[in-house]
Amino acid sequence: xxxxxxxSAMGAAAATPVWGADKAFEVTRTDAEWRAMLSPLEYKVMRxxxxxxxxxxxxxxxxxxxxxxxxxxDLALYASQHKYDSGTGWPSFWQAMPxxxxxxxxxxxxxxxxxxxxxxxxxxxxxxFDDGPKPTGKxxxxxxxxxxFRAA
Length: 152
Known about the structure:
By secondary structure, the protein is an alpha+beta fold. It has one domain: Peptide methionine sulfoxide reductase (Metal Binding Protein, Guanine Nucleotide Exchange Factor, Chain A), CATH 2.170.150.20. Helix content is 20%, strand content 26%. It has three helices and nine strands; from the N terminus they run H-H-H-E-E-E-E-E-E-E-E-E. Strands 3-4-8-7-6-5 form a six-stranded antiparallel sheet. 30% of the residues are buried.
């Protein structure tokens, strides 16, 4: 009985969007529109709060100058000068562009983390941790599939 309750709770938590359907974003699309414009992995990460496999993003070891935009709505999110090698296997930044992201508590997997999303379309980007470099001490650990790089 306890196992069934536990598994039901885990399934419900995983299926529930963190910032919910009641949040109005500037850019909105139907589920069918999101599925049509995104690959299956992009959809899983950006719309269902999934995570790409560590080390799988070419953007992790990418060091060109420019801006990283949201794949969902093309909003500029992160500048290359704020990117660093965190050694985690995901693209990491110590700061986002002003007013580019939103955050929400993520209570999945029996822990509390800070989840970040595009403030314009709500696409899931990754998580923010307190183990980054100065001056902010933050590590914005992002899924590369959520981002599109635009050269300076």
